[in-house]
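Hi all, posting the design record for the shared folder.

TITLE: backbone redesign
STEP: 1 of 1
STRUCTURE INPUT:
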């Protein structure tokens, strides 16, 4: 708010200062100045010295979290519980399917891999935040892993969505990996590579002035456009499949389009949604919006695989001619 260190009794207290605001949350920027020109006595003339400064900032009650991170630990734990419950139900449904109909290669295992990877990401981030709440630093390795593991989840889920959009389980039963490996393998590798690179690069400018949430900046817009491209590819594949389907199979494809839209557009819509909020609220908004949207998409897919009333159960070749549950 324009005040300088001189107003915080800097002469007698060089270790600690307290800044108060009661109107609203504020974003503070700190600058280190060489007021007494002592640096020229240490560094040679013409050089550009680099200074590393560590600051430990807490709230008035000793809370290590700044305003934008308050509540994120609770949010990640809640999401972890929700995904854990969904994962357990998916496993139970798959076991029942295998025992009753002997079907091993179904959408369930792919969905389980995606849910497991997402759960690990939430677990790593929750542990990082729990550590951060105690020392103000956390574990950087856990923070990095929490940004990388969603790439595995997105790769598995994108593969599942595109396969279902191509007619798997309603037009054909088995995937011919031998003849189509040149399509599936590069696609999965590309998705994983982009997600891995973008997730890692979020730490390059982590302290930048524009970094109001994890994917603010260039990395976020790269992921934004990549998700849009995946959504377009998914929609085109779905459109091509509709031409080959019977009328009674169109309800499933419509449901699949809704589910795929939720999943592929979760990140792009969340990024746009953050601009409707104050900068100090965008981290929480982005995390909640993107994670809850993807959870809703996964829950919708689970319903399609589980419920005897779903369009998938009525049109899938796995259940053709078999009594529904």
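Okay, here is what came back for every position:
SEQUENCE:
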């Amino acid at each position: 708010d324009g005040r300088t260190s001189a107003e915080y009794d800097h002469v007698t207290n060089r270790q600690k200062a307290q800044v108060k605001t009661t109107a609203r949350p504020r974003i503070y920027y700190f600058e280190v100045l060489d007021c007494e020109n002592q640096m020229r006595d240490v560094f040679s003339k013409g050089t550009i010295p680099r200074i590393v400064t560590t600051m430990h900032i807490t709230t008035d009650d000793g809370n290590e979290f700044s305003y934008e991170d308050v509540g994120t630990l609770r949010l990640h734990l809640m999401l972890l519980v929700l995904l854990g419950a969904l994962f357990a139900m998916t496993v139970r449904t798959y076991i029942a399917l295998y025992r009753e109909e002997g079907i091993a290669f179904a959408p369930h295992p792919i969905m389980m891999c995606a849910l497991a990877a997402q759960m690990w990401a939430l677990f790593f981030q929750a542990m990082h935040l729990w550590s951060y709440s105690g020392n103000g630093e956390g574990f950087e390795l856990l923070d990095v892993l929490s940004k990388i593991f969603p790439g595995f989840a997105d790769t598995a889920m994108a593969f599942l969505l595109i396969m279902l959009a191509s007619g798997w389980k309603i037009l054909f039963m088995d995937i011919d990996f031998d003849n189509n490996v040149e399509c599936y393998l590069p696609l999965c590798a590309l998705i994983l590579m982009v997600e891995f690179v973008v997730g890692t690069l979020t730490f390059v400018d982590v302290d930048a002035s524009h970094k109001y949430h994890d994917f603010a900046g260039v990395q976020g817009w790269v992921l934004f456009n990549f998700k849009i491209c995946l959504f377009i590819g998914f929609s085109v594949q779905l459109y091509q499949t509709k031409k080959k389907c019977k009328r009674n199979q169109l309800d499933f494809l419509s449901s699949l389009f809704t589910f795929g839209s939720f999943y592929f557009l979760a990140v792009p819509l969340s990024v746009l949604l953050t601009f409707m909020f104050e900068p100090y609220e965008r981290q929480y908004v982005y995390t909640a919006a993107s994670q809850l949207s993807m959870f809703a998409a996964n829950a919708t897919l689970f319903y399609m695989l589980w419920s005897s009333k779903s369009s998938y159960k009525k049109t899938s070749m796995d259940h053709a001619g078999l009594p529904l549950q």
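COMMENT: The chain has nine helices and no strands.
Let me know if anyone wants the other runs.
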